[in-house]
Amino acid sequence: MGEGGRLSGKMALITGGAGGIGQAIACAFLKQGASVMLSDIDASHAGAAANRLSEVGEIHACQHDVTDEASWNQALEKTVSALGGLNVLVNNAGIWVAGSVEDVTPDAWRRGMSVNLDSVYLGTRQALPHLRESQPASIINISSIAGIIAGPNLAAYNAAKAGVWMLTKATALHAARGGNNIRCNSIHPYFIDTPLLQDVFARGGERKALNDDQRGKLASQAPLGRLCTTDDVANAALYLASDESGYMTGAEIKLDGGFSAQ
């Protein structure tokens, strides 16, 4: 077991696990005693991330296309086989899609919906039978503050992340009314300085680290005066995965530094 025991006995699958948010959540879970499966479309990156975290606790990795039903079946089977079950699902995989309702192309719209929203539906639907076998269980959906507050140039991203928000509530009600101790909640971060955010400022497909001016402009829009961090998200996910949040379901945690309160 890691440093603590808030997640002792928990078995978690984290999608998009090779990215910064996925790795931060995995590290927090491992430190609190959970065993973890990291899944990602890039198997080599997922494996490398798992290797880096292997000293913290029990962690595995697998290749996983979250837009594909068969791939979900395989990822879930590998998770249950490796960990002995599943009682925490973190739907974290996502991509950035920019453009107004007129600018975003139909292909980009469909791709954004597939990765950001359809994946959550597929994963939730196929994971529920496994979660019922290992109750109490928790589904944690990583949405965005963009799922609550719209922007003129984020039509597809706004729509998908808002869909995740509502799907979370529908799932929570379905599980509760079915008599299951399976909770479902969403996390809505403000901008986080990760490669996904770097796509916001990409030019010609070239991704670059944010400069101080770009970072400062985004940070200044939040009353707390800073960007969200991967640790902020990991700490929220840790709470939702633990039995400490046993009476929370169908809810959202806004990690926006006060942005939505203005």
Total domains: 2
Spell out the helices and strands N to C: EHEHEHEHEHEHHHE
Give the distance, in angstroms, between the N- and C-terminal Cα atoms.
42 Å
How is the largest sheet built, in terms of strand order? 3-2-1-4-5-6-7
Low-confidence regions: none
What is the gist of this entry?
With 262 residues, the chain is α/β, with parallel strands linked by helices. The chain is built from 8 helices and 7 strands. It has 2 domains: 11-189 and 229-250, NAD(P)-binding Rossmann-like Domain (Rossmann fold); 195-227, no CATH class.
What is this structure's SSE topology?
Elements: E1 11-14, H1 20-31, E2 35-40, H2 43-53, E3 59-63, H3 69-83, E4 88-91, H4 106-132, E5 137-142, H5 155-177, E6 182-189, H6 195-198, H7 212-220, H8 230-241, E7 252-255
Parallel strand pairs: 1-2, 1-4, 2-3, 4-5, 5-6, 6-7
Helix pairs in contact: 1-8, 3-4, 4-5
